[in-house]
Give the backbone structure.
Amino acid sequence: MKHISILLMLMCLSFGFSQDIPNSFSLQEAIDFALENNRVAKNAARDIEAAEKQKWETTATGLPQLDANISYQNNLKQQISLVPAEFFGGEAGEFVEVIFGVQHNVNATATLNQLIFDGSYLVGLQSAKVFLEISKNAKVKTDLEVRKNVISAYGNVLLSEETITILEKNIDVVQETLDETTKIYENGLEELESVEQLQITLSNLQSSFNNAKRLKIIAYQILNIAMGIEYTASITLTDTLEDLTLKNISLETLEQQDDVTTTIDYLIAENDRKSKELLLKLEKSKALPRLSAFLNGGYLGFGNEFTFFNRDQDWAGFSTLGFSLDIPIFSSGGRSAATQRAKINLEKSKDELIETEQRLGLEIETAKSNYRFSTEDYYNKKRNLDLAERIEVKNQTKFFEGIGSSFDLRQAQIQLYDAQRDLLQAMLDVINTKAELETITNRISEN
């Protein structure tokens, strides 16, 4: 009975976990799910939370700091001092053993520290703000990459599905043709070469079919990992390759003017330049004085017996107010060298920002060109498939009528299979090049 209860509990837990993962996904649903569950995306979100905490940590260093300390000391064997006996009316030259202090003492202190001025602190506040901005931009960059990876993985799954479907149809057609040709050969009306040609074609198709089934399993696993779920989980995709292709064909995308300075890669490079500016400010601030204040107070308790919890215990209070001013005077050129190094790094970051701007402009134009070509290539491959299908049908008719060779039929079949494969790849290229363009320009369209 105990084992049955445990089994039922595990089944309930398993059912509960399975409810968190939908059984089917459209492309947009897969993207949305990945942005919430992909491990890299989740860690990027955690980086933002950590940056927010670090920002407050930096801010808090300039706010009042209060510390308390309680110490207790038990002088198990008190130290003896020798004092001239004549101080107590004794003979000159003699000494008297004297114990200074008491056996027990307690010291309770509270100290309040306040930073009044520190150039490094002011720069630190600005740096914390920039660091938070860097983390947010990194999250955007991560989400864009996760989105692109999911689109690519989703498209590869659909490609494998379509490939298997087409190969199954091709195998059925070739098998039927082979069966008919074999019967004709057995009746002495066809050459053995025709049968062998079809057997070669069928063998190649079956090999491709088996490989496509293996690749399908891997494609699903890659998609699962990209979405942030167990890689062996079973899911169903609701979009089709053709539907996604048509949705992603939009010439308006090519006509839009893109501002390089709004792309995430440019913003990240700009963040790097700002951070280098702050590092330069930090090095300069180290030459400024640092002023802080403190206020402490406490009580001291003494006694030869441990009576500190008694009401009649005497306590001596004390308090101190003070200021501390640190003035950098001479560093043997160390601060100057650090400042010059920071200036060099700042100049490097400025050049890198210009280079990033130019590189992004080129990448956007390249992405647009690739997207335009993939769109044009899709229509071209679609026309080629129509032609290849008609050519294959004609050659098959000629073959059975005895006016066409098996070699011509095989060539037409190979041409058809290539056209089928090329069209599927062209459809996937449309989806991927559109995703690449959207990733570079930060312009995301809902699929």
